[in-house]
Amino acid sequence: MNIYLIGMPGSGKTTLGKRLAKTLGFSFTDLDIVLAEQEKMPVTEIFAQKGESYFRQAESECLKRTLQLQKSVIATGGGTPCFFDNMAWMNEHGITIFLDVSTDELVKRLTSSEDATQKRPLFANKTVDELRNSIDTMQVNRVPHYEKSQFRFLPHETKPSFVASQLKEKLPDLF
Q: Is there a binding annotation on residue 132?
């Protein structure tokens, strides 16, 4: 059984994922890194050279291959749950956790360094106001998909030890 972390770009999927995996004794997989390795180019280049449609199809195929993993925490891309049948598939084949972070906090995190937005193709080269508007629009479209997850944690609840204890309490057979 795998754990899929979902949420907006900047919500902490990779950061929490690494720590949660260590806490649980699971492995960690970042779906964007797997996809970049498969395509032999960064996610931003896949978007630029091959387009979002190609990216989403390849991302979905990478997601389905995570079925081969055992006891892994998987950080998905922010859009992963919103395309094809990915959200239903993750719920069927693992545990899904929505990291629910406010627009203000996302803007703060994404503007903390230049690299934070540049490695996210849908946010690259945006002013703070454009970034805020993009996040707001994106949340309107994505949150309904995210809300189909089995668990939802707010930022103050995302300490790996807390998430692990909640999972162990509610899903003892997993551990």
A: no
